[in-house]
């Protein structure tokens, strides 16, 4: 069940994309998602698509992973594209039935929306596939650090994030164990009507909650015993290095932006 | 030998209206460089005792002195630096996302410069023989390996005392052996004081001194030989017998004369072959 989930998975590798600073990757992914909305014609979309494709090639990650990233969102994409296609008016009318009308603008808009979706999913999948979760949480902390000025609890948030990430596999294992234990006692998961399915979740959820509380208690005690007194006066073991290739990446993005602005109407 | 941990008339209740205190007038002294095992049945107050030593629990009455300092609000963090603790559940005390991060966690808290941390992490990893696992995540380690990392995390902080709070109780025999061996080596190398709270009789047999707790009180105190020669009385205390003692009981049941004093495994072998020769 959990293995199908591509989102948030990391594929170890040693490509140039993998070695980039996670801060660069995180910021540039958000930036890219922002500038996708600037594109408004064939040329500009093609330009961004080519750019994304090059980035994917550079990561040396199998294209199949990206296509699988699209799959869970397929219905959302089809729904949105269909809405755009049938309800946008303007241009030549190809086909009409009641309030549904397939027009020239509608088709164009639908295709653009589709491209937008796919590009956003591809670039965010590229980010998560090429960056270990831990590096991502480091990057988030580094990026949020300026917010300390307005009393935003940066250290606490990043600690919570890294503990949460560290406990994901532990809790997954435990879920599996509780599920099997309950199955052995005759609980049917995923069978019957929706109400029955929901009821079957209860004997899984409650033990999981209780054990999480116990874990939290143990962990807090262990942290305190090891001298954890909050964020002040702490040093950091893992540090991020900004390298030449990160600066280069930013420069590439500047050119992409310039190209995009030039290509759009 | 200098006393390093001194407890005087310690009384502790989890809830103020609890009738029976978890700790009842416990007084004891642990000397520098000693290995002390604290044993007792479930609910005898062993773990509570461990947590009062570094101020994780504050006693209702009595005094805790570590390295001559009386535990109080102001020096609680200094005392926690002197006393390292390894807990029972290997999963729940693993803070870092990888082995090296976890070992570094305590040092980060103390504000140790990064260069020092890197060398100390390496040293600690070597001491518990986990160097090849430095970048592994906890999900990929066995229970014994996780406990060795927890020990490395404590050792890197260079404490004077290590408390093992049932640190081997969730491990298989192999993991248990690995952990005890690691602690033994580290103790010798760094001249540490070890307080191990345990149900495991082999772990207790390694100690210089054994303290037996019963219902929140210090019930008995002595060398492992003295304590283990109590024989069946140990079973009543919720403890197991060491293997030679079990063998002695079985032989006695068969009508053989057995020596009454405690024998180690070697002593047992010695006695067995001499007694056979005598016949």
TrEMBL record, chain A:
Record's GO cellular component terms: plasma membrane
Give the GO molecular function terms: transmembrane transporter activity
Chief location category: membrane
Keywords carried by this UniProt record: Cell membrane, Membrane, Transmembrane, Transmembrane helix, Transport
Q: Which Pfam families match?
A: CbiQ
Q: Give the residue spans that cross the bilayer.
A: 20-39, 45-66, 73-95, 107-129, 244-263
Q: Where in the cell is it found?
A: Cell membrane
Source taxon at top rank:
Bacteria
Q: How does it sit in the membrane?
A: Multi-pass membrane protein
The entry's function note states: Transmembrane (T) component of an energy-coupling factor (ECF) ABC-transporter complex. Unlike classic ABC transporters this ECF transporter provides the energy necessary to transport a number of different substrates.
Q: Which family does it belong to?
A: Belongs to the energy-coupling factor EcfT family.
Query: What is its quaternary makeup?
Result: Forms a stable energy-coupling factor (ECF) transporter complex composed of 2 membrane-embedded substrate-binding proteins (S component), 2 ATP-binding proteins (A component) and 2 transmembrane proteins (T component).
Instruction: Spell out the protein name for this chain.
Output: Energy-coupling factor transporter transmembrane protein EcfT
Tell me the lineage of the source organism: Bacteria, Bacillati, Bacillota, Bacilli, Lactobacillales
The gene it comes from is ecfT
UniProtKB/TrEMBL annotation, chain B:
Q: Any idea where this protein resides? A: Cell membrane
Spans through the membrane: none
Supply the InterPro entries for this chain.
Answer: AAA+_ATPase, ABC_transporter-like_ATP-bd, ABC_transporter-like_CS, ABC_transpr_CbiO/EcfA_su, ECF_ABC_transporter_ATP-bd, EcfA_1, P-loop_NTPase
The protein's matches in SMART domains, at most eight in alphabetical order, are given as:
AAA (SM00382)
Record PROSITE patterns: ABC_TRANSPORTER_1, ABC_TRANSPORTER_2
Q: Name one Pfam family in it.
A: ABC_tran
ABC transporter domain sequence ranges? 5-240
Which GO molecular function terms does the record list?
ATP binding; ATP hydrolysis activity; ATPase-coupled transmembrane transporter activity
Q: Which UniProt keywords apply?
A: ATP-binding, Cell membrane, Membrane, Nucleotide-binding, Translocase, Transport
User: What SUPFAM superfamilies does the record point to?
Assistant: P-loop containing nucleoside triphosphate hydrolases
**Which ranges form a coiled coil?**
none
Q: Which GO terms describe its cellular component?
A: ATP-binding cassette (ABC) transporter complex
Top-level taxon of the source organism: Bacteria
How does this chain sit within the bilayer? Peripheral membrane protein
Q: What is its main location?
A: membrane
Q: Which family does it belong to?
A: Belongs to the ABC transporter superfamily.
UniProt xrefs under PANTHER family? ENERGY-COUPLING FACTOR TRANSPORTER ATP-BINDING PROTEIN ECFA1, HEAVY METAL TRANSPORTER
The name on file for this protein is: Cobalt import ATP-binding protein CbiO
């Amino acid at each position: 069940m959990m293995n199908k989930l591509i989102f948030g998975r990391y594929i170890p590798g040693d490509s140039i994309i993998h070695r980039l600073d996670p801060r660069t990757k995180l910021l540039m992914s958000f930036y890219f998602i922002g500038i996708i909305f600037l594109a408004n014609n064939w040329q500009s979309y093609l330009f961004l698509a080519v750019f994304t494709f090059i980035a994917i090639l550079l990561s040396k990650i199998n294209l199949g992973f990206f296509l699988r990233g699209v799959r869970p969102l397929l219905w959302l994409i089809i729904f949105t594209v269909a809405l755009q296609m049938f309800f946008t008016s303007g241009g030549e009318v190809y086909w009409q039935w009641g309030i549904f009308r397939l027009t020239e603008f509608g088709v164009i808009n639908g295709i653009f929306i589709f491209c937008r979706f796919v590009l956003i999913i591809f670039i965010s999948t590229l980010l998560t596939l090429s960056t270990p979760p831990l590096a991502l949480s480091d990057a988030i902390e580094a990026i949020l650090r300026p917010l300390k000025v307005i009393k935003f609890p940066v250290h606490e948030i990043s600690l919570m994030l890294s503990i949460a990430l560290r406990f994901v596999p532990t809790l997954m294992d435990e879920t599996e164990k509780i599920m099997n234990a309950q199955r052995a006692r005759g609980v049917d998961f995923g069978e019957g009507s929706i109400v029955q399915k929901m009821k079957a979740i209860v004997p899984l959820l409650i033990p999981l909650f209780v054990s999480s509380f116990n874990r939290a208690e143990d962990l807090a005690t262990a942290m305190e015993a090891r001298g954890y007194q909050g964020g002040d006066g702490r040093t950091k073991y893992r540090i991020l290095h900004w390298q030449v290739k990160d600066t280069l990446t930013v420069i590439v993005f500047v050119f992409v932006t310039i190209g995009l602005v030039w290509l759009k109407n | 030998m200098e006393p390093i941990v001194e407890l005087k008339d310690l009384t502790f209740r989890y809830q103020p209206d609890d009738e029976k205190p978890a700790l009842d007038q416990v007084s004891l002294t642990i000397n520098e460089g000693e290995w002390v095992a604290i044993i007792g049945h479930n609910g005898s107050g062993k773990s509570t005792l461990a947590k009062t030593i570094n101020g994780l629990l504050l006693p209702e009455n009595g005094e805790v002195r570590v390295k001559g300092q009386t535990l109080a609000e102001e020096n609680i963090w200094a005392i926690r630096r002197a006393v390292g603790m390894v807990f029972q559940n290997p999963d729940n005390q693993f803070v870092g996302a990888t082995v090296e991060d976890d070992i570094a966690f305590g040092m980060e808290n103390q504000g140790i410069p990064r260069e020092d941390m890197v060398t100390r992490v390496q040293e600690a990893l070597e001491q518990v023989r986990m160097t090849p696992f430095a970048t592994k995540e906890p999900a990929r380690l066995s229970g014994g390996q996780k406990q060795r990392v927890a020990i490395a995390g404590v050792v890197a902080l260079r404490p004077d005392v290590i408390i093992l709070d049932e640190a081997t109780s969730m491990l298989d025999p192999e993991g248990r052996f690995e952990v005890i061996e690691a602690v033994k080596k580290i103790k010798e190398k760094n001249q540490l004081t070890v307080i191990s709270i345990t149900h495991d009789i082999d772990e207790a047999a390694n100690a210089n001194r054994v303290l037996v707790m019963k219902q929140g009180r210090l019930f008995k105190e002595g060398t492992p030989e003295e304590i283990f020669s109590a024989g069946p009385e140990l079973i009543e205390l919720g403890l197991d017998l060491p293997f030679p003692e079990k063998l002695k009981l079985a032989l006695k049941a068969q009508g053989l004369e057995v020596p009454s004093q405690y024998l180690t495994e070697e002593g047992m072998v010695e006695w067995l072959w001499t007694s056979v020769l005598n016949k």
